[in-house]
Amino acid sequence: MGDGPLADVSVVEMTGHRAGPFCGALLADMGADVVKIERPGVGDPARSQGIGPDGKSGYFMANNRNKRSVTLDLKSSAGREAALELLADADVFVENFGYGVTDKLGIGYDDVRERNPNIVYASIKGYGETGPMKEKPGLDLILQAEGGLMSVTGPEDGAPVKVGQAIGDLTTGMFAALGVLARLYERERADEFTGKFDVGLFDSIVALLNEYLTEYSMDGSVPGPQGVTHQTLVPYQRFETADGAIVTGVPSDDRWDDFVDLLGRKELREHPTNAVRRENADRVVGIIQAELELETTEFWVERLTKAGFPCGPINDVADVVEHDQTAARDLVVPHEDPDWGECVLPGHPINFPEYDTVVRSPAPRLGEHTDAVFADVVDDQTTLEEWTEDGAFGEN
Questions:
Q1: Does 282 qualify as catalytic in the annotation?
Q2: 33, 44, 140, 169: the active-site residue
Q3: What residues have CB less than 8 Å from 311, skipping those under 6 apart?
């Protein structure tokens, strides 16, 4: 069936760190041919960040699987011309330079569109390409704070903390991939096509505030850190067990009596609706906690699951890697890296049953595919030699 639903899509990616590379990785996982342009001798900064054993970056490996790497010096006229020739036949270009940088380099949307009117041009920025802060650089941690997400994260009545992963980067990468797919779909149907779009980390994080924004407009409420409870449901939170902890809850009032029967705490019938339970949250949660701490996590997970209540233990990374559901869904993929050896990489989160979406190739070495890629771009060997002599691919 081929390598995925995007097997006929060509992508050129000129990104670094996480948001842009994650977008490219998602597209590559779905079969797109993703060529990553990197700076000669340096490459994506992620290559030297998040360094693990033997100087190998799991950060880079996870977000650049299934791609090919070429090096180009875009400050040279030959490098710029090589980039434009590569983009002339591409379906998609993904970049996350600072505001205005691609225009200065001669690979802005108008420059690329002149060669390729059908290009889908995805720009990822800290604050997007409009508004008073468009020129300000933005990184995940700063945007989690400024975008409001940090204010609702952390222990109740405690100081705000960041989410445990770079949620702004990763969400922006997902939104960018979604935008690419939307533009590709539109391109097949539009009489006049404008392929440019942009997404900012600030935009993505504000979007994650979701109903908090609407509720603020309704009653002026400003939530603080949510701890391990839910903003609307009681109970729906972490509870201690005899040997650990569990997260569980009751998603609808019509299951409340069943939950009370399962716990054997009849006094809880005094709180039949979520509205009443929210008004008496301390009492309700206290009774449930007193009961759950009498048995083990395994006991409660088995019993609650059998009764049809959502529940689960609080797993760490090691638990997730070894989880049966992780294996069944190929969410962690065994991998042989040419430098590191045996390891695992994150799989693709969308399940296409007719396609094999496991990792097909490792994160590339810097410039590993430069010769092969540009041999297909140029019409003659003389042009390739001239580009090389003129420093298109870095110092000779």
A1: no
A2: 169
A3: 246, 247, 248, 300, 301, 304, 305
